[in-house]
Every structure is written in C-alpha cells, then in structure tokens.
Amino acid sequence: MKRIKLPLFLAIVIILVTGCSKKNSNEGVEVSGKNDTNIESTVTVTPTATEVVLPEDDDKTKVLYPAYTVVNEDKRYGYMDDKGNFVIEPVYYSASDFSEGYAVVTDTTGKSLLIDTAGKIIYKSPYTISPFKNGASVVSVESENSLKSGYVDGTGKLIIDPIYDRADSFNSNNQAYVLIDDTISLIDKNGTVLESHKLAPEYSNMDQFVDGYVVYTNEGGKTGVVNYKGESVLSFEYTSAYSVYSAIQYLGNDLFAVMGEMEEGKEHFNSYYRPFALYNNKGEQLTEFTLYDVSTFSENYVSVTDDTNTYFIDTNGKEVTSLPKLEGRGTMTISNGIVKAEVDNSLLYLKKDGTILWKMADETTLPSGVTVKSFKFKPNKYVVVNYPVIEGMSSEEIQKSVNDRLKDIFISPRTGLTKDDELTVEDDYTASQLGNLLIIIQTGYDYYFGAAHGMPIKQYYFVDLTTGVFYSLADLFIKDTDYITPINTIIQTKIESADSEEDFYFEDSFDSIADNQNFFLEQDGITLYFYPYEIAPYAAGFPEFKISFDELTNVIDKEGDFWKAFQK
C-alpha cells in the first residue's frame, strides 16, 4: 500500500488532494521514481520568494489538509492537522479544501455533505453542494420531479428557499446570478431581485451557468457563450454534433477554453484528446489550438499541457517562464504561493521558484524489511506505466531476476505504443506480503479513443521472497492431481445458485477454468476471478468465486513450496 507521509513543515502545503471538483512526454522516456521526472525537469527562470502567513487557529480558519489513505485499492479521503494526524478520519470518496471553515465531502453512499472543521455534518444532500463561498453554499432539493436550487448558511439553515432552476455562488459583493424558467436575475443575500433579463430560447440548453455567463449548445453542432443579458460573447459551429460536448469551458477571469475541430472520423473523441485555444470575453483568440488539460484559473494562472510538459500560462495566453514547468501530463494550481502538481498520476508540491516541498511516497516497506519502489515508464503522452522494483532481498542475484521479470511483465506490452495508436494506458500496482510471499497486484485501464468504455486490468503475481519463484495456481496442488474438476464443480454450483437479480452470467458461458486461471490468495482460501466479458457482461466487473482450502483439502499440496510460503 502506498502511503502519504506528511512532514511538519507541510502546514502550508496541502491545498487539495482530490479529483472531485473541476472548478476549483517524451517518446520512449523511462525514469526512476514516480515523481523523479517532475523534480529533475523543474524549470525556474526567475526564482520567486514565497512568504506565507499561517491563519490563526479558530473555527473558521483552522488549518486542515485533505489527504487520503488507500483501502482495497480505493482512495479514502479525510483531513489532517499540521502534525500529519488525521483529525477527520479518511472515510470519504472525495474531499474539497476548506473555505471559510467549511468543506464539501462525498460519503460512501454518494451523498454530498457540508462539514465544519470538527467533521460535524452541517448539511446533507443526495445532490451536489457547491463550495462554501461568501457565507453560503448552493444546495439542491427535488421538487415535483425536478431539482431546485437555494442557499444555506454555515448552520445548515436555508437562507434562500430552493426555488431556482439554476443558481451560482455569491460573489464578493454578496450578489449571485440565478435562473427561473427563461429569466436570469441578479439577487442579493435576501433573495431580492436587483435586475432581470430574459434568455432567448436558443440559449436554454446550458452546459455552464457561472459568473454571469451561459455556455450553451444547440442541435446541429452549434455552441457558444452569452452573458446574463443575453449578449453574445462567443459563437461556434462544428461539423459534427459530437464535437459540441464540452467544446467551451469557462476558466474564470472572463476567459474561455475553446475546443478545436477534429479531423473526419475522429469527431467523437472527447476533450481529453482534443486541443483547445484560449479566448477572452471580447471574442478574441489568444492562443493557437495547441493546449490540452486546461485547468481553471488560480491566482491568475492556468495550467496547460502539450506533447511533453505541463506549464502555466497567464491571462494573455503566454507561458509564464518564472513558474515551474514539469515533464509529463497533468494539471497544476497555485494557492497561498504553493504550486500543487498532479502530473502522470503523481502528486507534488513546490514553491513558485521550483523548490520541492513534498511529494507522494513512491515506495512500500514490507514486514520482512524488503522495499518495493515505484519506477515510471512513459513511451508517449497517453501512456503511463508505474512498475515495481524490489530492494532488500537476501540474494542480489535472485533479486535481479525478480526485477527483470517484473519489468518485462509491466513494460514489454507497452514498449511499442505511440500516440498514433490512439490508446490511453494507466498501469499501476500495489505491493503486500503474506507469509514469505511478495504479492504484486497489477492494475490498469486501457481506453481506445472514442470507445464506449475501456478495459480494466487486474493481475496478481506471487513471488517467493527467498527463492524468487513466481508461483502459479497449479503450484498450490499435488503434482499430477486433477484439481481443475473439483474447482469447476464448485464454480458451476455457485453460478447456478446465484441470485439472478444480483448476479448475471452469460448462458453456458462457463465450461472450465484455464490452466493459467486468474486467482488471488487469502489465509483461508483462494478466489478465482474472470475478466469482463469472459462469463458475464462488462457491468459485472470481475466475477469472483471464493473457495475455502477445506473444500480442496484432498488436492492441496501442503508440503509444497507455494503452500509453505504463505502459511508461515
């Protein structure tokens, strides 16, 4: 399990460790360590001193930092204090940063919660809650089969009833834009209408309603932006209706990212694979269509990527050479003078002058003292492979053999990939120890551009820490004994007795396990699993069948090396 180490000096560093909120590569490169490539390629042209004043420790400004632990390969978010201790336990699917003493989290049931710095739930909703801003959060409730938006204060009390079809956050003037039917209004904290404007029908299909702007789409590939008065800001027409989706994104600071047109046959590619250009609210194009992964504004800067690097641009669309430029693909934000970089699935914090403050731990220490370090292989900007390297085994020769095989397993299938293959790859792993067994779980996701969905990867590797042997399922059983038939019988019985409403398998899909059947171990049994589409639809995920060792006692080789390795 990979862990976050939070040093004491990080009291000003962690800004937001989450992928929940959108608002707030060289060809053939192989580098050591998940974050080493970022550190080595940090570019600083004009060092900038960073002075940060810590807020006083009261309820509204108490310094807490979103952070996560990994539970069963999933991230669980909570909040740490400046000593690295969890003061709000990591039990949430997502967690925002605190704003004015409040944060928004998502619980394991999918509900949104507004919480205070003590972790107390202020407001709960099955729908989205906006970040707390200028004394209020936007909340939604269901009313007559539709959602209506209103505002709650820091006590969870409704200060403006949920009567709006759409509502934006209050600005620093304590004013907000709201929509009822076809009318946009500017209101104050009492809900008093200050001004109103009718919105023309062609703008009613909204993608975004923020800061007094409406980003809209129409049938036939038309998209654009109007302000709250209905005055046109931007207007585009794409040759394919597919292209309209997310074609314009409001970034803040009265600036927009506009998606470029794709060549014929690739119109259905989503925004991750398509270049953007920067436009202002005067309709002026500030950059060419060469920008990817465009972030929202933070401290007057936006991060973007090209084929090789992640870097910042300013409100004129010009690269900011005084700020860090990192090799790899991702996003960066700035808060309180600290740069948070999430590049190639790694997390890194820097000063504006490029000084590294903190990075994600990239090694795991096992109970035996053996360490597993993460290295990165990146053949092109769409492919990231994190693979394990073992250190601390008793025999260097055996250790080298194990590492060579693991590297081959992870890298060989990806070596020849180029960006022209139109495939994204995200491969990673977790490492653990059971008895004298090193267990490496390879996880990943392959996605071909424009496909309905990708294909997940999950492979288990069991390595003897003494001999370096990679064990297979057959090694668990007495040699020349038929272990396949009893396993087949047990699985077939489980399929036939499955609840048809919860478990669904293809008819006559299971005949027999394979010689190299996928499986994983527990202390009291094995679980055999199948890939999506093998015996069940994609939505079923990886169907699993747990079989206790007691059920297979007649065929298990309890004198074998595999059994002894994890029963120690």
From TrEMBL:
<dbReference type="InterPro" id="IPR037126">
    <property type="entry name" value="PdaC/RsiV-like_sf"/>
</dbReference>
<dbReference type="InterPro" id="IPR021729">
    <property type="entry name" value="DUF3298"/>
</dbReference>
<dbReference type="Pfam" id="PF14903">
    <property type="entry name" value="WG_beta_rep"/>
</dbReference>
<protein>
    <submittedName>
        <fullName>Uncharacterized protein</fullName>
    </submittedName>
</protein>
<dbReference type="Pfam" id="PF11738">
    <property type="entry name" value="DUF3298"/>
</dbReference>
<dbReference type="InterPro" id="IPR032774">
    <property type="entry name" value="WG_beta_rep"/>
</dbReference>
